[in-house]
C-alpha cells in the first residue's frame, strides 16, 4: 500500500512540475495519420548514435582499423589509431565523414562506412513512459511509431491505471506542450481514433485512478 501511495505521489509531482514549467492546457492530438505540422519532423527523422550502441566501422582496404566498437557512457569510442572519438549525437553518415577526417592524418584517402548493430540512442531521442504502465521504461524511438506501438512495448496498463486521463508531454517550438491522450479508449475499447503519432523525446504520464 505504501508503494502504491509513493508511486501515485511521484506521478502527481511530475504532473505538477510539468504544469508549472509552462505546459499548455490539455490539448488533443490528431489521430495517427501523420498530422501535417509533424509530418516533416517524422519523415526527416535520422537515427542519432547514443551510449551503449554497438557500431561497425569499416575502413576500406584497412581491416586493421576496422571492427565493432561499443559507445562508452561518455559518448566516445576507442580505436586502434585514435583513443577518443566523439560519436554520440551524430548520425552514422556524419560519424563516417568525421572518422575519415581523423584517419586522414594516418591513412591516405580513407573511405569509412558506419553501421549500427545494436540500437540504444541518446536519451533525447527516447520515449519515456512513467506511472501506471505494466512496464514503465524508456523506449527507443522508431520512425512512424504510434501510441499503440509504445503501449505494446510497455505491456499495456496496470489494473490501477486511469488511461483516459493520461498526458503526453512534447517539446514543440522550444516549449513544453501538454496533450491529453485516451489510452483506455485505444487499448480497451479498440478506438483507433485514439491512436496518435509519437515523436522522439515524448514523455507519457499515466496516472492512477481514484477509486
TrEMBL record:
Could you tell me the keywords of this UniProt record? Cell outer membrane, Ion transport, Lipoprotein, Membrane, Palmitate, Polysaccharide transport, Porin, Signal, Sugar transport, Transmembrane, Transmembrane beta strand, Transport
UniProt key word Nucleotidyltransferase: no
Q: Where in the cell is it found?
A: Cell outer membrane
| GO (cellular component) term, any one | pore complex
Q: According to its record, how does it sit in the membrane? A: Multi-pass membrane protein
For this UniProt entry, the molecular function terms from Gene Ontology, in alphabetical order, are: polysaccharide transmembrane transporter activity; porin activity
Q: Name one Pfam family in it.
A: Poly_export
Identify the residues that the record assigns to the SLBB domain, covering every copy.
Answer: 127-206
Q: An example of a Gene Ontology BP annotation on this entry?
A: monoatomic ion transport
Q: How far does the signal peptide extend, from start to end residue? A: 1-27
Q: Output the InterPro entries linked to this UniProt entry.
A: PEP-CTERM_polysacc_export (IPR017477), Poly_export (IPR049712), Poly_export_N (IPR003715), SLBB_dom (IPR054765)
Q: Which domain of life is it from?
A: Bacteria
Q: Which residues form the Polysaccharide export protein N-terminal domain?
A: 44-116
Family named by the database record: Belongs to the BexD/CtrA/VexA family.
The name on file for this protein is Sugar ABC transporter substrate-binding protein
Naturally occurring in which organism (per UniProt): Colwellia ponticola
Amino acid at each position: 500500500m505504501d508503494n502504491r501511495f509513493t508511486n501515485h505521489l511521484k506521478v502527481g509531482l511530475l504532473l505538477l512540475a510539468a504544469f508549472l514549467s509552462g505546459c499548455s492546457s490539455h490539448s488533443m492530438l490528431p489521430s495517427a495519420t501523420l498530422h501535417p505540422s509533424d509530418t516533416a519532423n517524422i519523415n526527416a527523422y535520422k537515427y542519432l548514435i547514443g551510449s551503449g550502441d554497438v557500431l561497425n566501422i569499416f575502413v576500406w582496404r584497412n581491416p586493421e582499423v576496422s571492427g565493432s566498437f561499443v559507445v562508452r557512457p561518455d559518448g566516445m569510442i576507442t580505436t586502434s589509431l585514435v583513443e577518443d572519438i566523439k560519436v554520440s549525437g551524430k548520425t552514422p553518415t556524419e560519424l563516417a565523414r568525421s572518422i575519415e577526417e581523423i584517419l586522414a592524418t594516418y591513412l591516405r584517402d580513407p573511405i569509412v562506412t558506419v553501421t549500427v548493430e545494436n540500437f540504444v540512442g541518446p536519451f533525447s531521442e527516447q520515449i519515456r513512459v512513467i506511472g501506471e504502465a505494466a512496464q514503465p521504461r524508456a523506449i527507443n524511438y522508431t520512425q512512424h511509431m504510434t501510441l499503440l506501438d509504445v503501449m505494446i512495448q510497455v505491456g499495456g496498463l496496470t489494473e490501477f491505471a486511469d488511461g483516459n486521463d493520461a498526458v503526453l508531454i512534447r517539446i514543440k517550438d522550444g516549449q513544453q506542450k501538454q496533450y491529453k491522450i485516451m489510452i483506455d479508449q485505444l487499448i480497451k475499447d479498440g478506438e483507433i481514433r485514439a491512436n496518435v503519432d509519437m515523436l522522439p523525446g515524448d514523455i507519457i504520464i499515466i496516472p492512477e485512478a481514484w477509486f
